[in-house]
Amino acid sequence: MMCEGPLRGGLPPLPSVFSPLPLGPEEDARARAMALAPERGGGLLPWLAAPDRIEAALVLEPEERLAAARAGLLAAASAAAAALAVFGPPEIPVTLRWPARIVLNGAVVGEAFLGAPPGTAEEGVPDWLVVGIRLFWRHPEGHEPGLDPGRTALAEEGFLEVPPGEVVAAWARHLMAGLAEWQSRGFRAMADAVLERLETEPWMEGARRGLDPATGALVLRREGVDTHHPLEAG
After folding, report:
1. What pTM did the predictor assign?
2. For the chain, what is the mean pLDDT?
């Protein structure tokens, strides 16, 4: 069983496209990636394993305008779900909750996040983009079981024997594979992977679901009328 303190272990070998950067448990992977992105460029992978969470962020160099590139948030969430499905107990479902929450066994275990250069116009192509994940490892000290049944942690769902570095590396590999498929086969390839895992919440009932390739928004069609739910919306 893993130690009770800061989670140990580094990352397993990754393709040369990645430049891993281990961080301390008090740091913020998203903030560090955004601060270093102009200097370090694509492939930078800050990550950390703290007693309560695992974080990882990847710097990308998109060719799309920002409005379309924001769908990278969905790719990051989908990659996290795919990685957890590999390592977790086979009987535990791994799903997504709009827009970018990662759900284990019906409870939220983490989320994906995104960062872009400040001031970038939606129609402009950003110099870089940061996508990443934050996964809950343990509940905060003093947490009472049942107090927040809608949230869970990896340590409670059968992941105690999985080194955090393996989870981060698997996420990075799944993400790059998904982005490569998006580039080669088009937006639909990524969208299908997301929609396959996306939970059907009450406000989606009775609607045909899709994703808008121009913005990444969730599109719900009822009786021939489309409603768009942007990535920024919960």
Report:
1. 0.93
2. 92
